[in-house]
Design goal:
single chain; about 280 residues; alpha/beta; Rossmann fold; 2 domains; six-stranded mixed beta sheet; six-stranded parallel beta sheet; 11 helices
């Protein structure tokens, strides 16, 4: 029986076992997907030993993605670009790492806004400069978007992201946090990658009154499903993209690698996870 995992600290909040369990049952596969709570001090040892514990691989979540990048033997080009790993497996005796957050975010954008949405986007504004922001920016870079602004409370982090992902400054530009409000009017896509708006965190204070009526607003937070930012966007009549789809889509490549079947993100799966989120709200 093939076993996989999601590892984090803490891990009780993870919906990944529900997602992978749904796919295992749907495909009639004999397998298991488990939650593992591993403290940061023990994580490098875990990466070296998970195969000996009988696991084919697994997902990596907060706070281990950067540590996983350092701990693996080989990385995909995506993971190298992100400097973060969220998917592990063993190949020819070596531990490999990939980053599927890029694929997850972009697949959800395509699903929600429709194929070709980027043709109407001249400028995108990304809020935050952490690992999730890197994934979002890298995905947007693959589309014909002329300008991507990256804003962070600590400007130097935004500048570091820009240097890493666009050394020539051809598309990316760092933006001081205090200038975010003024940039809203000139932006076609706004993406929040910070924890602001997450359950237990303060809301993201962003005035959307000057936003273009054709603009879209995305939030990678999925607890709650409708963040204050998305609620404000809906009130303005703007198109919105929630954070749940990114979670669902990023899971598929790992499942395919460990269990040998490429799963689909269906309305049934989304409804299952949505119901669980709402029941615990």
């Amino acid at each position: 029986m093939t076993k996989a995992f999601v590892v984090g600290h803490p891990i009780r909040h993870s919906r990944s076992p529900m997602i992978h369990g749904h796919w295992l049952a749907g495909h009639g596969l004999e397998g298991a997907y488990e939650k593992l709570d591993v403290a940061p001090a023990d994580f490098p040892t875990f990466v070296r030993s998970f195969a000996a514990q009988g696991y084919a691989g697994g997902n990596v979540t907060i706070p281990h993605k950067e540590a996983a990048y350092l701990a693996v033997d080989r990385r995909t080009p995506r993971a190298e670009k992100m400097k973060a790993v969220n998917t592990l497996w063993v190949e020819d005796g070596l531990v490999w790492g990939d980053n599927t957050d890029v694929l997850g975010f972009m697949a959800h954008l395509d699903d929600t806004l429709g194929i070709g949405w980027e043709q109407a986007v001249d400028t995108a504004l990304v809020l935050g400069a952490g690992g999730a922001a890197r994934a979002v920016v890298a995905g947007l870079q693959d589309r014909p978007i002329r300008r991507i602004l990256v804003a962070n409370r600590t400007l130097t982090k935004a500048e570091e992201l820009v240097r890493d992902l666009d050394p020539e400054g051809a598309v990316l530009a760092a933006l001081p946090w205090e200038e975010v409000g003024g940039a809203v009017a000139a932006t076609d896509l706004i993406v929040n990658t910070t924890s602001l708006g997450m359950a237990g965190q303060p809301p993201l204070a962003l005035d959307l009154s000057a936003a273009r009526p054709t603009a879209a607003v995305a939030d990678i937070v999925y607890v709650p499903l409708e963040t204050p930012l998305l609620a404000a966007a809906t009130a303005r009549g703007l198109r919105t993209v929630d954070g749940l789809g990114m979670l669902l889509h990023q899971a598929a490549p790992g499942f395919a690698r460990w269990f040998g079947v490429t799963p689909q993100v269906t309305a049934e799966l989304r409804a299952l996870v949505e119901a669980d989120l709402r029941s615990k709200a």
